[in-house]
Amino acid sequence: MLKEISCPDCHWHRLVGTAEKLRLLHQVGMLRREENPDQAIIEELFQRSSRKLTCGECGRVGLRIDFPRDEEEDWGDGRVCEQCRKTIPAERLEIFPDTKICVACQQKDDDGHDDTQPDFCPRCGEIMISGTSRGGGLTRYRLRCPRCG
User: Fold this and answer.
1) Vertex 63, ends 60 and 68: CA angle to 5°?
2) Cα–Cα–Cα angle for 56, 109, 123, rounded to 5 degrees
3) Alpha carbon distance 145, 132 (integer Å)
4) Residue 51: which of 85, 82, 24 has the closest Cα?
5) Smallest Cα–Cα separation from 56: which of 16, 18, 29?
6) Distance between CA atoms of 43 and 49, rounded to whole angstroms?
7) Where are the beta strands (DSSP E) in the chain?
């Protein structure tokens, strides 16, 4: 039975079958002795291992395990966007059959709105760091350059 594992942080996802489930269970130490365990045991242990599984992209420990969408149910709906995990409409896939992201995420990429890009110092180009402002009252956060101050 296929399952989809996905990372809640970076939206990485992958479909896994029985052989991959066994490999992941051995990797996290939840299945050691039996060569051919019962399918029900594999499914139960795999479901319980979600807190121990590691993301293949960002390294986060703790993944979601879901049933993959049924092919008949998705007919005409399109596929899932790799960035936001929303469904890509079938019309977009007709025009761009190899696309892996939806219109909204493509627009963000085209406009240069990449949330993962750090802010750089306008004077020296160093990556800015977040810090708190000094003074009484409310704590305020601001970006500052570690080199320029």
Assistant:
1) 140
2) 95
3) 13
4) 24
5) 16
6) 10
7) 3-6, 13-16, 64-66, 129-132, 141-144
Q: Six-digit token pair at 138?
A: 């409310």
Tokens of 120: 């750089």
- What is this structure's pTM? 0.45
Q: How far is CA 122 from the centre of its chain?
A: 31
Q: Compute the half-sphere exposure of residue 74: CA atoms within 13 Å on the CB side of its CA.
A: 12
Neighbours of 24 (CB within 10 A): 20
Strands 3-6 and 141-144 turn out to be unpaired
pLDDT in tens, 86-135: 788 888 888 888 888 888 888 887 876 655 556 778 888 777 888 777 66
d(CA 111, CA 149): 30
Residue 107 carries which side chain, given as an amino acid letter? Q
